[in-house]
């Protein structure tokens, strides 16, 4: 299960967020153009507005609040898990 982020205004902002997560928090992040592609990786039951980023979760959840807080800096939103 991933942390799921959407509503980035352009694909470049989603890629910038994914890069930030990978370099700052050492979590793997994947960018998808649309929900169909994202759902092949980790299905989400609600409608998402692409571009979409999936961020891997760790068992201790220690970085999740910080990752969620930074998405605003990239003009995206946290959709859920």
Question: What can you see in these coordinates?
Answer:
- The protein is built from three helices and four strands.
- The termini are close together.
- The chain has one domain (2-80).
- The longest helix is centred in the N-terminal third of the chain and has 15 residues, at 11-25.
- The chain is of the alpha+beta class and 81 residues long.
- Strands 2-3-1-4 form a four-stranded antiparallel β-sheet.
Q: Which descriptors apply to this entry?
A:
81 residues, globular, 4-stranded antiparallel β-sheet, 22% strand, alpha+beta, 3 helices
Relative strand content: 15-25%
Strand neighbour order, sheet with most strands: 2-3-1-4
Question: pLDDT under 50 segments (min length 5)?
Answer: none
Q: Tally the structural domains.
A: 1
- Strand-and-helix sequence, N→C? EHEHEHE
**Backbone structural class:** alpha+beta
Q: Overall 3D geometry? A: globular
Average pLDDT metric: 95
Q: Number of helical segments? A: 3
Cα-to-Cα separation, first versus last residue: 6 Å
* Helicity, as a percent range: 25-40%
Largest sheet: 4 strands, antiparallel
Computed over alpha carbons, the radius of gyration is: 11 Å
List how many beta strands DSSP finds.
Answer: 4
Short description:
The chain is α+β, with helices and mostly antiparallel strands and 81 residues long. The chain is built from three helices and four strands, in the order βαβαβαβ. It has one domain.
Annotate the secondary structure layout.
Layout: E1 2-6, H1 11-25, E2 29-32, H2 35-41, E3 52-56, H3 64-70, E4 77-80
Antiparallel strand pairs: 1-3, 1-4, 2-3
């Amino acid at each position: 299960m991933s942390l799921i982020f959407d509503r980035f205004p352009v694909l470049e902002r989603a890629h910038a967020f994914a890069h930030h997560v990978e370099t700052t928090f050492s979590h793997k992040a994947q960018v998808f153009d649309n929900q169909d592609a994202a759902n092949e990786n980790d299905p989400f039951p609600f409608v998402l507005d692409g571009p979409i980023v999936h961020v891997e979760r760790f068992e201790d959840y220690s970085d999740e609040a910080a990752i969620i807080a930074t998405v605003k800096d990239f003009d995206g939103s946290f959709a859920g898990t």
